[in-house]
Amino acid sequence: MGDAELDGGGRLPLVEDFYTLQGEGYHTGKPAYFIRLGGCDIGCCWCDAKFTWNPRIFPPVEVEEIVARALSCPAQAVVITGGEPLLYPLDCLTGKLHEHGLTIFLETSGAYPLSGSFDWICLSPKRQQPPLDAIYAQANELKVIIESEADFAWAEENAAKAGKGCLLYLQPEWSRYESLIPAVVEYVKQRPHWSISVQTHKFMHIP
After folding, report:
1. What would the pLDDT profile of 73-102 be if each residue is shown by its tens digit?
2. Whole-angstrom Cα distance, residue 156 to residue 181?
3. Residue 177 belongs to what H/E stretch?
4. Residue 97: which H helix or E strand, with range?
5. CATH at 124
6. How many structural domains comprise the chain?
7. How many alpha carbons fall within 13 Å on the CB side of residue 67?
8. What are the residues whose beta carbons fall under 8 Å from the beta carbon of 149, sequence distance 6 or more?
């Protein structure tokens, strides 16, 4: 998607936006307005948002409209997610949200340079397209998806790069939750610098 179509971040390919509860990581259970942007080339086979991958099917929406919709509900926090939201310049969107006093959380693979201003960054690294080195120091939360026990070593590689004070989470891949959770529990018990993130929204059957 070209710069002209996006107007320097004044328009963004919006997949969906909705008010719900954060289901994962440190902010689990907190009300938040989700802004999901289209486009991702990371290609995780287990991705539960594959419908977002092609940004061309989501016409760019004016940032002013996106912000107005966020302000129309009681949300005090906004989650910007995808897809991979850092494919786009996010300074305009985050600036306007902050003007209204909203707290902004970002969910990213870290594979692209950071743009925008955030109150909380959740970095979820992917093997096939690892994070840029610069984002580790800025991440508040490292959330590694565990698809198999081989992923524990990948998690430790990323934890070693994380900044001081970054919270560390292991999250069982949802389709294999039942088979993986015993190993993840045991791993965290033996290595208490980690915590477990569970996709609670899926247990609650909410978006």
Report:
1. 999 999 999 999 999 999 999 999 999 999
2. 18
3. helix 177-190
4. helix 91-99
5. 3.20.20.70
6. 1
7. 20
8. 183
Is the separation of the CB atoms in 125 and 142 below 8 Å?
Answer: yes
Q: How far apart are CA 6 and CA 105, in angstroms?
A: 22
Distance CA 105, CA 119 (A): 6
CA atoms within 13 Å, Cβ hemisphere of 182: 2
Question: Edge to edge, what strands does the sheet with 11-21 contain?
Answer: 60-62, 11-21, 31-37, 77-81, 103-108, 120-123, 141-146, 167-172, 195-196
Q: Which amino acid is at 13?
A: P
Rg (CA), the chain: 17
Determine the structural domain holding residue 78 and report its residue range.
3-204
> Which single residue is written with the structure tokens 């310049």?
89
Give percent above pLDDT 70 in the chain. Answer: 98
Quick check: 23 and 48 in contact, CB under 8 A? no
Q: What's the pTM?
A: 0.94
